[in-house]
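Allow me, if you will, to draw on your knowledge of protein folds for a short while. The matter concerns a single protein, recorded as an amino acid sequence and a row of backbone structure tokens. Could you please explain, in whatever detail you think fit, how the structure tokens follow from the sequence? I remain grateful for any guidance, and I place the record below:

…
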Amino acid sequence: MSFHAEKSLIRAHHAALLDATAETVASILAAHTHADWHWRGMHPWHEQQGAEAVARAFWQPFLRSMSRVQRREDIFLAGHNQIDGFQSVWVVSMGHLMALFDAPFLGLTPTRRIVMLRYAEFHRVASGRIAETAFFCDLLHLMRQAGYTPLPEQTGAHLIQPGPATHDGILTAPQPEAEGALTLDLIERMIGGINHHHQFRSPEEELGQTWNDDMLWWGPEGIGATYTIPRYIEQHQRPFRTRLSDRRFNGHVARLAEGSYGGFFGWPNLTLTSAGGFMGLPPGTKGDMRVVDIYRREGDKLAENWVFIDMLHFLKMQGVDVLEELRKSS
């Protein structure tokens, strides 16, 4: 399938948003969405119903604070959702919303400089309109650009994260169905490796089944980016597995692939208990992680992974209210 109609709808939706203002954005959102549009956003926006509510929660405050907004997209794909038996069609967009930070936003002091808000969107399209959206963005990353760093130094690198090394992530032309099936199968095997990691002799053996040795893992602010299997183990996997316990996988809402790209999101994907030390957290508290993973396959291995986590929600469940602390410090 080409998914031409679904992709064209999201393209039109994005194009219209480029001209939106705080006063017009509700009607612009309504033009491409169902009346009962289900929107999932990160903390503090959470779940909203309908264009008016989405505009009021996120887009109006964002557009009042950020001027000259551009969408700098790195990955664009569509596919049938494996989770519902390949019945629904979802369109995925990932990149940055670039803008001039000109007025306060979520308690952050404006810089009057360029900021880049990392985002990933999953849109379910039905009957020619958007029925459901998951909008993930990296608010801790935005905070750091504005000079606010509420967490201890992270284990990976802080970067404005690029798109695919191959520069081929915008899938406008139809992709061979078999290529998407290969990508989805590889993602499935990678998830299986995580869920049964105790069966492997070492983390290197586990990861080597499905990842290139020179893998790139573009993690969220608070964890950071890391490169190669050994550094990924050192800078993310080992801290994650040793400082968080009682890991429960809750499943995904959508999981799909097209060509060499694929990904998923959950609401929440994981429930974990802090064993102490992860992002400076004390031990003993439980929290949910809402996560997006987007992948690029290279041959028969995964080569790149972009990760978004609703960190502010997870931290608040641990008793750390980053936005409240920001308001107190302002």
